[in-house]
């Protein structure tokens, strides 16, 4: 059968369960009598081996290749979407927002999933007033207290570590902020700290109706 007499040059891995070799650097592969099962491999080092492959072997090899490629792609996407960087603190805007140098640019960073009370009368302050059943003055007072708490936490620190995935509609980086605390020889999760100590709440979208009593 002249149509079955073909050859091609490849480099293929061969698992020890399929053959008596770990890796074959093949320069020529020729099918033997049964082209669907057995192949005669001529190696570059002139070592001739007879290795048997079945369609099941080829399908398994293809499946492993596709699975490995897919997993690698997922890991790559995750590494791209989840950014981490060290920023230099410039200013504390309020309890959940600060300004910092990121790649030599003044950038605002907002604590992800954290909502501290506002320090100025704005649309968010009005929402907090209605949602939590407070007066405007109470909202602003709580907001100034939260800002004071964050300033106190960061006063002896110049750098923060930020993990983030996206920006909000105002262009602010939304992320988790970490602080290396030399005194306690540990790492402080600033987001959790402000929720527990800073008088802040879990973030609630402004589209949500008034909080039920």
Characteristics:
single chain, 213 residues, OB fold (Dihydrolipoamide Acetyltransferase, E2P), 5-stranded mixed β-barrel, disordered N terminus
Short description:
The chain has 213 residues and is of the alpha+beta class. It contains four helices and 13 strands. It is elongated.
Report on the structure:
- The chain has 213 residues and is of the alpha+beta class.
- It has 2 domains: 2-58, no CATH class; 83-202, Beta Barrel (OB fold (Dihydrolipoamide Acetyltransferase, E2P)), CATH 2.40.50.90.
- 30% of the residues lie in helices and 34% in strands.
- The chain has 4 helices and 13 strands.
- The strands form 4 sheets. It has a 5-stranded mixed β-barrel. A 3-stranded antiparallel β-sheet has the order 3-4-5, with no helix packed on it. The protein has a two-stranded antiparallel sheet with strand order 1-2.
- A hairpin with a 4-residue loop joins β4 and β5 (48-52).
- α2 (123-132) crosses α3 (136-154).
- The longest helix has 27 residues, at 55-81.
- The termini are far apart.
- The relative contact order is 0.12.
Q: Which stretches are poorly predicted, pLDDT < 50 over at least 5 residues?
A: 1-50, 76-81
Oligomer: single chain
Distance between the termini: 85 Å
CATH topology heading of the largest domain: OB fold (Dihydrolipoamide Acetyltransferase, E2P)
What is the number of E strands? Answer: 13
User: How many domains make up the 3D coordinates?
Assistant: 2
- Beta-strand percentage range: 25-35%
Helix content: 25-40%
Largest sheet composition = 5 strands, mixed, barrel
């Amino acid at each position: 059968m002249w149509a079955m007499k073909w050859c091609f040059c490849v480099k293929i891995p061969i698992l020890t369960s399929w053959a008596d070799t770990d890796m074959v650097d093949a320069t020529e592969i020729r099918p033997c009598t049964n082209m669907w099962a057995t192949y005669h491999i001529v190696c570059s080092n002139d070592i001739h081996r007879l290795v048997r492959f079945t369609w099941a072997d080829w399908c398994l090899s293809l499946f492993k290749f596709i699975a490995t490629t897919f997993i690698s792609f997922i890991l790559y996407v995750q590494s791209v979407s989840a950014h981490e960087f060290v920023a230099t603190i410039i200013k504390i805007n309020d309890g959940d927002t600060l300004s910092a140098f990121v790649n030599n640019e003044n950038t605002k960073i907002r604590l992800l999933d954290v909502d501290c009370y506002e320090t100025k009368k704005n649309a968010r302050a009005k929402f907090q007033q209605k949602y939590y059943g407070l007066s405007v003055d109470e909202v602003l007072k709580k907001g100034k207290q939260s800002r004071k708490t964050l300033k106190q936490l960061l006063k002896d620190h110049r750098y923060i570590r930020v993990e983030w995935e996206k920006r909000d509609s105002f262009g602010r980086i939304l992320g988790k902020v970490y602080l290396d605390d030399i005194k306690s020889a540990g790492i402080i999760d600033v987001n959790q700290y402000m929720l527990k100590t800073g008088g802040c709440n879990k973030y609630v979208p402004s589209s949500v109706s008034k909080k039920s009593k």
